[in-house]
Write a structure and sequence with these properties.
- With 161 residues, this protein is an alpha+beta fold.
- It folds into 2 domains: 64 residues; 81 residues, no CATH class.
- Helices cover 42% and strands 28% of the residues.
- It is built from 3 helices and 6 strands, in the order αββββββαα.
- Strands 1, 2, 3, 4, 5 and 6 form a 6-stranded antiparallel beta sheet that branches.
- The radius of gyration is 22 Å and the shape is elongated.
- Keywords: Membrane, Transmembrane, Transmembrane helix.
- It comes from Thalassotalea algicola.
- Pfam families: DUF3592.
- This is DUF3592 domain-containing protein.
């Protein structure tokens, strides 16, 4: 039984470590994308369609809605169609909202080097802070649930200093 608990302890450690690294890499991706889009040109565009896809929980009850926005814009005489809202994950809402409606004019950011690349939001501070919080909690869990042999190594190295 003792061996089985060591295996579970190690698997929990690896799972939390992988979860923490995933959020760390995604946070780096969001920052990298934001910095690369810093010189993108703000361009007026027109909302073509707004759809909300319903996502139910495991009991079949209403859970959340995913917003899918498509918009068109002109850049140097060429017209483009895009549906990218941000650089991170898709955004979910508890209820469909009226933030965007068809034929509404909004500003989007367009890559001048590749005009087919555009985004509505380059950076969302609240989402990014939530990612950092999840990452820190994951790494805190990694530290708390580290295997006993790893605890012994960290204790030995701290006594040497």
């Amino acid at each position: 039984m003792r061996t089985l608990s060591k295996i579970y302890e190690f698997l929990l450690f690896l799972l939390m470590l992988a979860f923490g690294f995933f959020w760390a890499v995604h946070s780096i991706y969001v920052i990298y994308s934001y910095l690369n889009s810093y010189d993108w040109v703000e361009t007026p565009s027109q909302v073509v369609s707004v759809n909300f896809v319903r996502h139910d929980d495991s009991q079949g009850r209403q859970d959340t809605y995913e917003r899918k926005v498509s918009y068109k814009y002109s850049y140097f005489g060429q017209e483009f169609l895009s549906d990218r809202e941000s650089f991170g994950f898709v955004r979910f809402f508890s209820d469909p909202n009226e933030k965007y409606v068809s034929k509404q004019t909004i500003n989007v950011y367009v890559n001048p080097n590749s005009p087919s690349q555009s985004v509505i939001y380059r950076f969302n501070g609240a989402t990014f802070l939530m990612q950092l919080l999840i990452m820190l909690i994951s790494f805190g869990g990694v530290y708390l649930f580290r295997p006993k042999w790893l605890k012994n190594i960290t204790r030995r190295s701290s006594k040497e200093f």
